[in-house]
Amino acid sequence: MRHYRHELSTLRRAVTKLGSFRIDKRYRIGRALVQWQRELIADLGGEDNVSTQQRTLIELASMSKLILGGVDAWILSHQQPDNGIKGDHKSLITRDKKLLPVVIQRCQIADGLARYMVQLGLERRQKQVSLQDYIDEHYGNKDEDGKPESENEP
């Protein structure tokens, strides 16, 4: 039981140190979370189309994803055999035939993450492009030959 408390207190300490949710990009997990946030913002239509409220939901979802990953890792490591003996592993079910509280809390965190995703919207949104931007991108500054002006320069 002490090992169980120690790992959760380590996770709690790490989350507390984040303070205003600054992700440390020096570590693989930090870079993965930042990449996930960028992909989420891109799916919502890009930086220009994401409101402050959506950014807050993205940060909350990122925190939930971080905690959920830590709890999942603990649960998976909890299921590994202790002494390398086949069949010698810890159970997630107590003697009273109840689930460990960490499993129930994991489900609650996962439900919260799913609710954040629903609030953000499950469909991918395209970036809004103005007519002028579209014309510039596709037809650009072309001369009378139909070639972009940059190609005519020696």
Write a concise synopsis of the structure shown.
59% of the residues lie in helices and 0% in strands. It is mostly helical. The longest helix is centred in the middle third of the chain and has 27 residues, at 52-78.
Which helices and strands occur, and which strands form pairs?
Layout: H1 2-17, H2 28-43, H3 52-78, H4 101-120, H5 131-138, H6 149-152
Salient structural properties:
154 residues; mainly alpha; 59% helix; 0% strand; elongated
From the alpha-carbon coordinates, what is the Rg to the nearest angstrom? 24 Å
Q: What count of domains describes the coordinates?
A: 1
**Helix share bin:** 55-70%
Strand content: under 5%
How would the global form be characterised?
A: elongated
Q: Whole-number average pLDDT?
A: 77
List low-pLDDT spans: none
Count the beta strands: 0
What is the number of helical segments per DSSP (H or I, 4+ residues)?
A: 6
Q: Report the span from N to C terminus.
A: 75 Å
Estimated structural class: mainly alpha
Largest sheet: none
Reading the helices and strands in chain order gives HHHHHH
